[in-house]
C-alpha cells in the first residue's frame, strides 16, 4: 500500500524502512499491545481497523480513537533513553495486519541511514499536530460539532464506495470518542436521522448524506 507518512522519504529509503519491518496478522478481538506494557516497537497499520482503548479513573475501558490503514502507533518506543510504557491498549476490530519495526531494528537503521531520523521527526510531528487538534476541539467546539466531525472521520475510515457508509459502532462507543454522554449523543444522532443525514441501527450508524454531515462539522 501507499504509506503517506513515508512520503518524505525517497523510494530507496522507504524500501529500507519497510524491509526492516515484520508483517504481523491479527484476528478480530486480538489484543496487539496492552496499556502499561513496555513499548518496544512501532506498528504501521497495513489493513483492518483497530480500537485505541484506555483505562479510566473508575477502572472502566474507554475507546478514544480508531486506527485504519496508513495509521500508526508506538512511535514513542523509537526515542532514545528510558523504555516507555504503552499508553493504551490496541484491539483489532476485524482481521488486521501491521508492519512492526522494533526499537532495536530502528536504532540499527539509524546508524546506517540518516533517513530514519527524518521518519522519526515526521511521526512525532504528526502526532503532536493530531493531539493539538483534539485538544482545541475539546476546549472550543460544542458536542454537536464534535459528533458531526467524528462521524465524518469514521465515514472516511469505513468508506468502501460512494454510497452510504455504515459505521459498526455503538452509540456508547461514539460517546467515548467525542467525550460526551450516551443520552446527549443519542439526541444529536436523532436530529441527524430526522434530517436524513444518518440512519440508526442496532450497534451501527449509517451515514447517508456525507456532504451535509461535513457542512455541519464545519
Automatic annotation (TrEMBL):
Residues 141-211 form the HTH crp-type domain. Residues 5-109 form the Cyclic nucleotide-binding domain. InterPro entries: cNMP-bd_CS, cNMP-bd_dom, cNMP-bd_dom_sf, Env_Response_Regulators, HTH_CRP, RmlC-like_jellyroll, WH-like_DNA-bd_sf, WH_DNA-bd_sf. This is Crp/Fnr family transcriptional regulator. It holds the Pfam family HTH_Crp_2. Keywords: DNA-binding, Transcription, Transcription regulation. Coiled coil: none annotated.
Amino acid at each position: 500500500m501507499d504509506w503517506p507518512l513515508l512520503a518524505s522519504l525517497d523510494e530507496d529509503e522507504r524500501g529500507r524502512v519497510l524491509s526492516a519491518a515484520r508483517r504481523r496478522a491479527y484476528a478480530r478481538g486480538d489484543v496487539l499491545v496492552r496499556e502499561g506494557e513496555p513499548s518496544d516497537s512501532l506498528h504501521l497499520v497495513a489493513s483492518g481497523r483497530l480500537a485505541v482503548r484506555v483505562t479510566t479513573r473508575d477502572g472502566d475501558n474507554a475507546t478514544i480513537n480508531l486506527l485504519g490503514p496508513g495509521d500508526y502507533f508506538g512511535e514513542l518506543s523509537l526515542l532514545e533513553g528510558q523504555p516507555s510504557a504503552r499508553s493504551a491498549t490496541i484491539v483489532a476490530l476485524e482481521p488486521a495486519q501491521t508492519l512492526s519495526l522494533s526499537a532495536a531494528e530502528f536504532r540499527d537503521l539509524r546508524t546506517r541511514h540518516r533517513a530514519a531520523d527524518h521518519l522519526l521527526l515526521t511521526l512525532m510531528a504528526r502526532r503532536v499536530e493530531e493531539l493539538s487538534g483534539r485538544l482545541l476541539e475539546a476546549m472550543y467546539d460544542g458536542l454537536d460539532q464534535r459528533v458531526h466531525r467524528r462521524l465524518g472521520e469514521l465515514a472516511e475510515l469505513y468508506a468502501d464506495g460512494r454510497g452510504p457508509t455504515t459505521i459498526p459502532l455503538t452509540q456508547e462507543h461514539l460517546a467515548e470518542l467525542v467525550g460526551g454522554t450516551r443520552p446527549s449523543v443519542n439526541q444529536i444522532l436523532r436530529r441527524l436521522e430526522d434530517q436524513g443525514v444518518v440512519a440508526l441501527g442496532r450497534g451501527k450508524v449509517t451515514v447517508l448524506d456525507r456532504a451535509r454531515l461535513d457542512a455541519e462539522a464545519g
